[in-house]
Write a structure and sequence with these properties.
Blueprint (H helix, E strand, L loop, with lengths): L2 H11 L15 H15 L3 H28 L9 H5 L16 H12 L4 H36 L2 H14 L3 H31 L1
Length: 207
């Protein structure tokens, strides 16, 4: 098991209603949904990913258990090799009932062992997508919060300050050559306007 699977197994172990079929709450979907939400929250993972990965682990454990039983039947006095997963999830043993084996159980067990050794790339891909979706949601929420703060600030600003913000955004969008020309023209307009304001002030004083 990888680190996520180990943490998932420990998290699921705390909720017996998710694996103990003798409990009445095992068949209660509301209790199960609540438990899975808490498991996902504790692992900071998507609930669907946790559910799928646990089904994979549970089924893989059941296959490992069948192989252990079959090897004991085939060679009662031989060396008992136990799969690592079977040892790690030993607490799940009494809750998993193996299916009846058939005459071709050895071949089936060997095939299952080969399949179990293959990397489960799909689960890692799903976990990566879930993490990407969480980051994207967090980024969207942060952007929206920033936009709302900006709107609230604009509503309380003086109209002249709001206009200057617009002018500043416009100037930042200009290429260097045009920016220099715009600043020069703006300075001329400001100078001319300042002179006209002074003249109007003098006229008002004479009156």
């Amino acid at each position: 098991m990888d680190s996520f699977e180990e943490r998932l197994a420990e998290a699921v172990r705390k909720y017996e209603n998710l694996y103990d079929t003798s409990l009445k709450s095992y068949k209660d979907p509301q209790v199960a949904n609540k438990s899975w939400k808490e498991v996902a929250r504790s692992l900071d993972a998507e609930e669907t990913v946790c559910r799928k990965r646990w089904r994979y682990l549970r089924d893989k454990f059941a296959k490992a258990k069948r192989r252990v039983i079959e090897k004991k039947r085939q060679n009662p006095g031989g060396k008992k090799s136990v799969p690592a997963l079977f040892a790690s999830l030993q607490w799940l043993d009494k809750h998993i009932k193996p299916r009846e084996t058939t005459t071709n159980s050895v071949a089936v067990s060997q095939k299952e062992e080969e399949m179990d050794s293959e990397p489960e790339e799909g689960f890692e891909f799903e976990a990566a997508l879930a993490a990407l979706d969480r980051r994207r949601t967090e980024q969207d929420a942060a952007i929206e919060a920033g936009r709302q703060r900006m709107l609230a600030m604009l509503q309380t600003m003086d109209p002249v300050d709001r206009y200057l913000l617009h002018v500043g955004d416009f100037m930042r969008s200009l290429p260097p050559k045009l920016l220099s020309d715009f600043k020069w023209k703006l300075q001329n307009v400001m100078h001319e306007t300042e002179q006209r304001a002074a003249q109007l002030g003098n006229s008002d004083a004479e009156l």
